[in-house]
Every structure is written in C-alpha cells, then in structure tokens.
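Before going further, it is useful to explain how the protein records used in this thesis are read. An example of such a record is reproduced below.

***
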Amino acid sequence: MIGCEIGKMKEMVRLEGIVKKFNNNLIIPELDLTINDGEFLTLLGPSGCGKTTLLRMIAGLETPTQGSIFLDDEDVTNLPPYKRNVNMVFQHYALFPHMTVEENIHFGLKMKKVPLEEQKEKVAQVLYLTQLEEFRHRRPQQMSGGQQQRVAIARALVNNPKVLLLDEPLGALDYQLRKSLQLELKNLQRGLGLTFIYVTHDQEEALTMSDRIVVMNKGYIEQDGHPDEIYHRPKTKFVARFIGESNFFEINEDQYAVRPEKLNLCVEQEDNEPYAGHPEPKFFGTIVDVVFYGTIDKVFIRLDNSNQTVVAYQYFDDVKRWSPDERVGIWWYDNDGVIVEK
C-alpha cells in the first residue's frame, strides 16, 4: 500500500550539521532540521535562499560539503538518488512526450524490473488516487498543465517513496488552477499519509497547504513553525515582511510588527479630548491614499515627523470610510503588536 498511517510522529528526515558550498560561495551555513513522518513541510523563502539546494541534497542530486542526511534512521549522505527511497517532482514535469500517461507512470517500475502484475496493480492504484484513469491513453501534449502535473506526481508515487520532494510544482500554472491544485495536493498528501517536502516562494501557498513552514533567508532558518505561528507571531523582521504585509513601529528601542488588518484608525481628537471605547493612539498621521482592493480598501497613512508610510485594511462594514488628507490616530491591541528581531 502507498503511504503510511497518519498520526505517527516518528522522525523521517534528519539533517545534521549540513553545510553547502559551491566553489568558494557559502550557500547554506551549518543547518539542522528534522522532518516527521506524514508531515507536509514547506521550505519557504525568496529566490537564492538555499531552499532548492536543500531539497536537492535530500534527493541526492547534490552532496553536502559537510554534515549528514538521514532517511528513516538510515544515513543516506553518500547514497546516489536511485538508492534513496525518495522521489522528486519538478516545476517542469519532465514527462516523456512520446509515451502515454500509463507508459510514463510504468517507466520507473520497468527500470526497477518490478514484476508485470505488480506493475499493473501499482499503476492502477496511482491512476485512481490522482484521478487520471480516463486519461491513461493520452500523451502529455494532449493534456492541460494541471493534468500533466498530476501525471508527474503519479509517476513519483508509484515507486512508493517514503518521502515526496516537490520543487515549486505549481509555479508554471495560472492562478485559478494553482489554487485548485493546492487543495488537491494537500488532500492527496493527507489521504496517503506520506511525508511531503515542498519548496515554494509563494507565501499564500505555504500558509494554506503546510503542516509546518521553515522560512529560509540566505541559507539560514529564520523561523520554523506552524503556519498560524509564522503569520501571527513572526520572530524576525524578515519573516514579518516576507509573509504577508506588516507595518513596523519603533517604541522604546523595540521594533513592533503589526499586520494591516490589526491596525486600527480613529479620528484625531482636538484639545486632549479622551478617546472613548479604545486605547489611546500610539501614533498619528495623515491619510495619503485609499486604494480599492475588492473586498477591502487599503488605507495608506504617512506618520507624523517621519517619511514612513503604514497601511491599514478598511473593511466595508466599518462605521467610517476614510479619505485622503484626513488626520487619524493609529492604535492596536497589545496582543496584536509583535516584538521582532531587527
């Protein structure tokens, strides 16, 4: 049977003291990371942060300069890719254009000389799992990008890997199809109970699909945690800025990150009048622009005595709609401002 039972939190992949250099360029400084069995873990970060290099080292396509890689407690650091029980799905699916869907999926099993009856059974299973049964006799050029992506995943799954590695597999698809396949992929992973290690630079994709996110920057792990924690409790300014939108405020030498949806605006009172119903504003400013974004307005405010502009989300059921040139006070609840490392 493909996959394993969900819920067993045993360790599946362990990286110990991994360092990677290309010539004299240090790509990944010393790094440790443990990934659990059945986990959907996403390596998230900007281009050049080392996430794909890390994935390729787990796959065996790159060798660490130093350190060790363990797969299900076996040291695989020096094993070639074909001896590791992992499979990789790339952004460009690398399907054989002259082969049908079924032949593409069969190919790896034939190379491994799996008995014919077992081949048929495995191929039938993954065709069912990936909803490709009706396309089994089509060639890749007769299929949409989303269907080709499922073929690539089916081909990777048919060898029953312990870990599936996915390098921006939805990057070449349009927005609507990408959203649909995000849900399909997550449901497939959950149903199989397989360990997925997923690389992307798309923050929304990472937040919606992952059990756990590892945010990388210049080869370092900036933060490792649950999507909710990564979004609502970023540890560093880089994470707060890279995941969604954030405003930054300096208060008593601490730097606070506040999400635009947590930033509240009020009319600036004159003559020291009290602010009823909410805390005193922490900052004051002038609205410079209000931009319509479909479900919200984005309200841009230039802070007093500063060139800094911050943004607040204006929801349409709010009591007041704001306009440029209005003076406002800015406040937030204590729990919504997060102190971050600069």
Q: What stands out?
A: Residues 1-7 have pLDDT under 50 and may be disordered. The helical segments are 51-59, 101-111, 116-129, 145-157, 175-192, 203-209, 227-232, 237-242. The CA atoms of residues 108 and 178 lie 27 Å apart.
